[in-house]
Specification:
Largest sheet: 8 strands, parallel
CATH superfamily of the largest domain: Aldolase class I
CATH class of the largest domain: Alpha Beta
Helix content: 40-55%
CATH topology of the largest domain: TIM Barrel
Strand content: 5-15%
Bound molecules: flavin mononucleotide
Number of strands: 10
Radius of gyration: 19 Å
Shape: globular
CATH architecture of the largest domain: Alpha-Beta Barrel
């Protein structure tokens, strides 16, 4: 399939793996890229420019296909070495960057000069338009369904994607709730030029996370995610577990007085315990409602091939037959 996104990133299929903390390592990114999509390494999981440079080199040993790096801009007191991370990306010869969080205006000139294509992930049309105005090559439009940070507007993709299509000139991919060929065809119908998946890619053979995480996604239904940190205007969609239910109880008790310190035990530094050690009640971890559509743990190649075959079947056979009357 050829779309503005396959052309932009030089990939075979219009499928991107979104950056994911403690998931987006070289094993994940290379497996998605080898399957014909765009795999993404998550810079902040590596933390330092040196470790990111090593991970980029490791990924290059595992694939000769294009892959990207996610750079998430967080409102944090101890900011990571962003200039160093940008340099590691450029020096590593990476040609695609997924930015997220705050708008990436400060790093755009460096990426533009180095010929790096930037896709900015955002949850509102106004943010997508801002990304377009500062020179981003594409955007990833992340609906309310998504795992991770859906923003505060709560607009699901059936509205958000056509709204983005009506306003944007640059290409965009759908993100949030995407799982299969149906998701891809629906996204294309609503004006997207591809789709981004997070949660679906965690439940694959190559995802470098504990088997308990994959099993939890397969076992979960679309009713098993919760929104946390809403009172702090830092909403995150996570898989429910004992720690998350405790967190929600604390949020209710504290009301408007809630401070980050009140819930620090449930959210800070929990990713290694969950993703690496498989301690599924250690705290809050991002997961999309799409868990309800995930019932197996294929290889990335099997998953991507299946998505493309299903998309083709829907377009040519199912819809084709409807048109033929
Ligand atoms: C476990 C997990 C960790 C994530 N970490 C990040 C991150 O560090 N930076 C980022 O921009 N997005 C992150 N995301 C969001 C994904 O890149 C993607 O936008 C989202 O998962 C799409 O929704 P879906 O899960 O319904 O496919 C994360 C998502 C998950 C599930």
């Amino acid at each position: 399939m050829k779309t503005a996104i396959t052309e932009l990133f030089g990939i075979k299929h219009p499928i991107i793996q979104g950056g994911m903390h403690y998931v987006g390592l070289a094993e994940m990114a290379s497996a998605v890229s080898n399957a014909g999509g765009l795999g993404i390494i998550t810079a902040l999981t590596l933390g330092t420019p040196e470790k990111l440079a090593d991970e980029i080199a490791r990924c290059k040993d595992m694939t000769d296909k294009p892959f990207g790096v996610n750079l998430t801009f967080l409102p944090t007191v101890n900011a990571p070495d962003y200039p160093g991370l940008v340099k590691a990306i450029i020096d590593g010869g990476v040609k695609a960057v997924e930015t997220a969080g705050n708008n990436p205006a400060q790093v755009m000139p460096y990426f533009k000069d180095a010929g790096v294509k930037v896709i900015h992930k955002c949850t509102a049309v106004r943010h997508a338009l801002k990304a377009q105005s500062i020179g981003c090559d594409a955007v990833s439009v992340d609906g309310f369904e998504c795992g991770g940070h859906p923003g505060e507007d709560d607009v699901p993709n059936f509205i958000l994607l056509p709204r983005a299509a009506d306003e944007l000139e640059i290409p965009f991919v759908s993100s949030g709730g995407m799982a299969d060929g149906r998701s891809l065809v629906a996204s294309l119908a609503m004006g997207a030029a591809g789709m981004n998946m997070g949660t679906r890619f965690i439940a694959t053979k190559e995802a470098p996370v504990h088997d308990n995480v994959k099993a939890a996604i397969v076992a979960a239904s679309e009713l098993d995610t919760r929104l946390v940190m809403r009172p702090l205007r830092n909403t995150e969609r996570v898989m429910t577990n004992d720690a998350v239910e405790d967190l929600l109880r604390i949020e209710k008790e504290k009301g408007d007085d809630l401070k980050f310190e009140d819930i620090i035990e449930q959210v800070a530094g929990v990713y290694p315990r969950i993703m690496t050690e498989g301690d599924m009640d250690a705290g809050a971890w991002s997961c999309g409602m799409v868990a309800g559509l995930i019932n197996d743990i294929p290889t990335c190649q099997e998953l991507v091939d299946r998505i493309m075959a299903q998309a083709e079947e829907i377009i040519t056979k199912r819809m084709g037959a409807m048109l033929a009357g």
